Predict the 3D structure of the following.
Amino acid sequence: MRVNFFSFRKSSFIFVFLFLLQFQSVQSSENKSDSTKLSELWKSAIKHNKDSNHYSALEDYSKALIIAPNNHLLFYNRGLTYANLQLLNQAINDFDNSIKIKPNFGPGYGDRGMVFYELDQKDKACKDFKKAADLKYKRAISWIEDKNRSAWCTQN
């Protein structure tokens, strides 16, 4: 079963709001030119993803991570972009980094689980789906509750 990673793109736009909230703390720790550049790169990456120009979005996220290397949302959204391009090992690496920075970040677990599922690593996928659901990530909760999709996972 192939996972539609284009739906991941939609979730990255949801995190724009979350990023802007977190961006306030980034601004206080970065100098003015860095925070301006970070904001420009973030907006550009979102636009590139919206226009399906994913490789340009990857470049912008990577440049932004040089400025803010501890921003879990930048890693997460770059991971979503890698997943859209079916660069699944890179996506896992970025989801790992996002989780390492913010261990209670449900979407990081949920979307890493989707990548593990795509790679037919169902034990890892199931573990991540359950962790994401425990963290109240709604998409993981609905996935776990859908017995037609998750019977193999909920039996464990």
Notes: The chain has a mean pLDDT of 83. The domain at 6-154 is CATH 1.25.40.10 (Serine Threonine Protein Phosphatase 5, Tetratricopeptide repeat). The longest helix spans residues 6-29. DSSP finds nine helices and no strands in the chain.
